[in-house]
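Hi all, long-time lurker, first post. I run a small reading group and we've been trying to get comfortable going from sequence to structure in the token notation. Rather than ask abstract questions, I figured I'd post a concrete chain and ask someone more experienced to write out its structure so we can walk through it together at our next meeting. Sequence below, copied exactly:
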Amino acid sequence: MSAKNSEALILNNQELNRVIGGIPKSSLILIEGANDTGKSVFVQHLAWSALTKGMRVTYITTENTVKSLLAQMASLNWNVDSYFMKGHLKIITIHVKGIQWNEEVSKQYLGVLLRYIKHMVNSDVVIIDSLTYIATHAQSHYVLDFLSEMRNLVDIKGIMCIITIHPFAFSDEMFIRIRSICDGHIIFYKKELSGRNVRLLEVAKLRGAYKSVNNVVTFEVDPVFGIKVLPFSQVKV
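-- Answer (accepted) --
Happy to help. Here is the structure in token form:
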């Protein structure tokens, strides 16, 4: 691996690496996509890739239990049980469904989450999947303050932070401001191509990457291979 490539996390998928070129290790990455577009599968693959390269991962989930996340990853042939048992993978579950969300509750959750990551996390990679429930009802300046603090932590600690979010969470104007804070922006969506409904991954921005951005790759989720890139990848859709 070249010195330049060693500054990025190379994924355990040759076809994805061909398009993305690895994820810069010290970066704040926004993963945007609707339900069932593959964004959670992608960050699980990223976690698996990091663990197999000796990195420590903290996975904060608002959509799974510890048991269901481990089972989900194992079903895609990414068995991380041994990493979890050794403490290399920490899974933090935040139960958000059924909560009566309002501005104050969202503010408190964002504050607790930030303090936990700042003072308790000692990992190379931090994944928040997803921030949607927590951030949707918060005032915009609290969300921007949270992301700005995460941006500072990325620089200070030299960590990679991956945050997934749904496109309905914020207004277009708010998304523009959020994307400007982040080093990377990867979009997941569905589209009909050649009469077939497929998932697509578009690298809209990836600061520090050694591949050009605006690359698009089509893929499907395969129980044996995890993310299986399909042959009709495009430069721009």
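A couple of things your group might point at:
Confidence is low (pLDDT under 50) at residues 1-5, 233-237.
The chain has one domain: 5-229.
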